[in-house]
């Protein structure tokens, strides 16, 4: 069993490494994808539009690919927007282990509500979600109740555009790092 696990890890992570090299996106590609993703998000969740007016910055990953069979991973590129303009490019990557199977794509947007939370992203050498500022995932119910009086957390996350099927229980570590696209 000890020999099988490393082989499974390599087999599961190889497609993500190949994708990361094969889909080396330009800044213009990422910006176009982010623009389209934000338009769709604002149409589907009007509270996200209202939140964007109050946010210090928004980090958008328009398309994340996730797959797994016992061992899994996910990968995607995105851009940080400040006052509607690109302020940096980022990659999210994660590995997971546990009872899981499937594949899916999705996007997510992180609304940084304070200058401190935005600067934490910029000064950390690869930000691990769950360490640092608090992140609140906004679901449909919470989205309906967001207002200027209920906003009290550092970062709000919206997940959107889910396609595919991924099921299971597992442990996951996710990291966001700054990149320099061509």
What does this structure look like?
Strands 1, 2, 3, 4 and 5 form a five-stranded mixed β-sheet that branches. The protein has five helices and five strands. The chain is an alpha+beta fold and 182 residues long. The protein starts with a helix and ends with a strand. The protein has one domain. It has helices at residues 4-22, 27-44, 46-54, 115-123, 140-145; strands at 57-82, 85-112, 127-128, 135-137, 155-179. Residues 18-22 and 139-152 have low confidence and may be disordered.
Give a short summary of the structure.
This protein has about 180 residues and is α+β, with helices and mostly antiparallel strands. It contains five helices and five strands; from the N terminus they run αααββαββαβ. Strands 1, 2, 3, 4 and 5 form a five-stranded mixed beta sheet that branches.
